[in-house]
Sequence to fold (322 residues):
Amino acid sequence: MSELLAVSDLRVTLQTARGPAAALREIAFSMARGDTVGLIGESGCGKSMTALALMGLLPEGARVDGSIRLHGEELTALPESALCRVRGNRIGMVFQEPMTALNPLHTIGRQIGESLRLHKGLSGAAARAQALRLLERVQLPQAAQRLDAYPHQLSGGQRQRVVIAIALACGPDLLVADEPTTALDVTIQREVLDLIRELVREDGMGLLLISHDLGVMADTVARLLVMYGGTVVESGPTAAVFGRLAHPYSRGLFAARPRIGLPRGTRLATIPGRVPELADLPRGCPFADRCALVVDACRAALPEPDEVGPGHAVRCIRWKDA
Ligand SMILES: Nc1ncnc2c1ncn2[C@@H]1O[C@H](COP(=O)(O)OP(=O)(O)O)[C@@H](O)[C@H]1O
Ligand code: SF4
Ligand SMILES: [Mg+2]
Fold:
């Protein structure tokens, strides 16, 4: 399969009051068309920042080093105007809160049409017809009547379907979905995820899904990247990662997951301690302050990835003891 996305040695440096700080370190992964990859980790680990780096949407003053290639084209070198074309045409984005992605003052038909006019050069009538097809594709009930609805007239789940329609408008090769269902009710979450899975399968798009929900990951992505402290601490085929949980952090994440069917009041195992601030990461292993296996050597340098199995790697110097 041809390469869709190749990220190598991606680093993001933020400007802080105390000077430059390495927020993302040595992130590397690649995707072919049709690949489904999940980015998982606690809040504050750098998942969204990784997605924003891919799309050239980092905060002012952030420096990006390393390489991000989409179909072989180096994105880190592109000027903003060219990046804007890539974002509109080749990468579709869905974020956690649909209202932030939608303009409350414009009808949803107009917002979907805008993308088609801008990036595909469609005229008003053609854009409207295509917007309707897209709304039908994302299974928005009564799509024809809803073309002229405003975002506030829709439910949260319906709004997220509209955001997905906008993301699909130009037929992207890669869909980046950052916690796309976290803000929705549980039953609606499942419907929206089913929709995303179906669309990705039908179109053969690559999917980069960000979630903190292990169950969602197990059902949706073929490969997992476990993120902690601004780096990928374990990566591999989803079944292999869940089967081995080689990194102490992956193990903690798994132990802390909420489970269905536990007696009420059962205490869930949690990982003690807090996620380090990305602007203030320790020098060595970012998990050192929370890890039961920590030794002095862990704090010396960020551990290099070690091979656990085929395509399965872990950044921990003591994973064999875990
Ligand atoms: N402009 C910034 N300056 C300093 N720190 C920032 C900045 N933007 C984000 N961060 C850091 O990034 C963290 C959030 O990272 P993020 O990628 O949003 O995490 P996740 O999506 O995994 O929850 C925050 O806790 C904060 O430490
Ligand atoms: S490198 Fe050390 S501190 Fe980091 S996860 Fe492994 S054992 Fe724990
Ligand atoms: Mg986030």
Residues 47-48, 178-179 surround magnesium ion (ligand 3) (CB under 6 Å). The mean pLDDT is 92. Residues 97-171 form one domain. The longest strand covers residues 3-16.
